[in-house]
Amino acid sequence: MLNKLFNFNNFKLAKKLTLLLSLVFIVGIILSGLALASILNYKAQNEISSKALLLSETINSIRKYTSTEVAPELTTRSTSDEFLAQTIPSYSVRKIFENLQKSDDLYRGFYYKSAMLNPSNLQDKADAFETAIVEQFRQNQTLKELQGFRGVGNQDFFYIARPLSLTESSCLRCHGIPEDAPKKMIDIYGTTNGFNWPLHEVIGTQIVSVPASQVLQNARQSFVLVMGVVAIVFAVTILITNLWLKLFIVRPIKKIAQVAEAVSTGDMEAEFEKVSNDEVGNLAEAFTRMKLSLAMAIKRFERYRIKSRDRIDFGDERTIN
């Protein structure tokens, strides 16, 4: 029963066209949606990563300037017991980043951290996520960067992480053994954390995070808007196509079928109307020729039948005589 109900061959031509166009509409929307989602997702990720890379390069420039320009000048002007936080690259970056966030609302959702396994300042202590990143850098010395998405609370962030290692032996003055550290540094941070750092080994990660929620939300809104427009265009196009097919193909063929039905019942006055010069018009002409041939065949058959009857009647009269 179901096979008969849903058998495509049992449908009328108009219904077949409607189903076909509906299928085209659905497939077209799905393929368009997949392609558009891929493009918008790529664009959103590219926008987010560009912001993160720009911020990361800016931070590296600040670190390099502090290490090569500020620290040497301040170190030569201080005693061995003094500790100047301004000579520490991570301190300079943190302060400049804080000022940037205060002066521009655009950067308030941005995040920077020099996440260390054993920092002097516990503000720089790596959390579980950051520790896992540090371990990846330590296990793969050729790995220079990691990036991806992470969720913090109800927000999504795109992060770029780069390894941090101790490359200058002069840094061991503060991060070697407590006895060599400046007295003022000991007074601030104590002797428990931030010492015995190994040279040329990954001890932390510089991680920059930029908010991705707004960009991804904008991408989703753009997706909904564009897909709405595409769906409307598809729907209008298919509706017009369906109406055109019914008007210029289905309706003329239906009229031809009605006339053919009338002719088959003996109405030789019914005419096949040619309304166009296309294949449907050619079909009407072919049926017209067929009707003429059928009419001529019927006339010949009638003449033959009359002659046969007259011949039989004449033969009967001779037999009687």
Structure explained in plain terms:
- With 321 residues, the chain is of the alpha+beta class.
- Helices cover 62% and strands 11% of the residues.
- The chain has eight helices and four strands; from the N terminus they run H-H-H-E-H-E-E-H-H-E-H-H.
- It has helices at 2-5, 13-76, 89-103, 128-139, 172-175, 183-189, 213-264, 279-320; strands at 111-116, 146-152, 155-165, 202-211.
- The chain has a four-stranded antiparallel β-sheet, sandwiched between helices.
- Helix 2 (13-76) packs across helix 3, helix 2 (13-76) runs antiparallel to helix 7 (213-264) and helix 7 (213-264) packs parallel to helix 8 (279-320).
- The longest helix is centred in the first third of the chain and has 64 residues, at 13-76.
- The radius of gyration is 44 Å and the shape is rod-shaped.
- The model has no long low-confidence stretch (mean pLDDT 78).
Which features characterize this protein?
321 residues, alpha+beta, four-stranded antiparallel beta sheet, 8 helices
Shape summary: rod-shaped
Strands in their spatial order, largest beta sheet: 1-4-3-2
Ends apart, CA distance between termini: 69 Å
Mean pLDDT: 78
The main pleated sheet reads as: 4 strands, antiparallel
| Discrete helix count | 8
